[in-house]
Amino acid sequence: MDKPRTDEDQQLVARTQSGDAGAFDQLVVKYTPRLYGLVYNMTSNHEDTNDLLQDVFSKAYKAIRGFRGKSSFYTWIHSIAVNMTLNFLKKRGRRFQLSLDDVDASIQNDKEFLELTATSSPVREADLSELQRRLNEAMMKLSDEHRAVVTMFHIQGMPHAEISKILRVSEGTVRSRLFYANRQLQNYLDEFRKNPVA
Amino acid sequence: MNEFDDNEIATLLRLKRHEQPPPGYFENFLHEFHRRQRDELLRQPLWRICLERTHNFLFQLNVSSLTSYPAAVAAVLVCAAIISLKIYQGPEAATVAVQSRSVLSATANGEGQWTLSSPVATRVFSTQPLRESSESAHTHSRGSGTPPRYVLDSVPVSYEATFKF
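Predict the joint structure of the above. Result:
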């Protein structure tokens, strides 16, 4: 997923800071789908994601006057979203409800999906929707910090450097968390493949 | 049986991008955002709304640059200097000193009396001491030719026990 042009964001931010609420609306429209994917894959619940996203943009709107542009708006809004989601998950604890585990029908035409089902024997063996459900469950077994890194790297396609800026940790920490999370996910999915009814 | 490798897991995770909210969600999101903003505004107390509007007004006038920390500190220092000068050079202190001197001189020979010289009636007490300091210093009788003897009690009166058996 490509990083959006920052000069366009800067102009919108400057207009918002000078009192143009319509400019902030454009930022909301632009970043909602991207942030939805981030927050949803960390919470696995649509209602929670919706409430969190509303709160994220509300907080960003209140704080945007203090935004000095030391980082890009992209990094800034993602930092707010990740931090608010992590705080929410700490309060929520392990109680969660998967609300959106059905894969969209458009996936059947996805190039990666076709390649995966054609070449990968474990995926061929397992029903894909069941595999996706198990993957969601495996994701929720990761710690919140590890899930955040997996979501940003694998699902959102962010580079390590960007993730380290958003989380304010070193790139080494990001790589380490990714490695550990991949091993965890691999173990969970292998377990499912060996015992599909479990 | 093969195991999942990193690439397959990465590909499976990338497929999660296809998980989407209900249709029309993104179109309605902005309306929902505006509605929540309005609700939040209506729930706020009046003083907070006024404060925010004042803040916005000042921000638009770019007054915020004037209220930087150095300017604020300088303003506080100037105010403190002016206030301290007023306190030290104020006329009230001199007036009080003169008045008290005159009162002492006027009542040195007389008994305590009431005066109406000031708006608040004050009782002026005689400042004449009961004994001269030279008298109070001698605790024993002395002869006319002998030098005075000064004896300090070993135990202060207040420390003596009330009952003795």
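The two ends of chain A are 35 Å apart (CA to CA).
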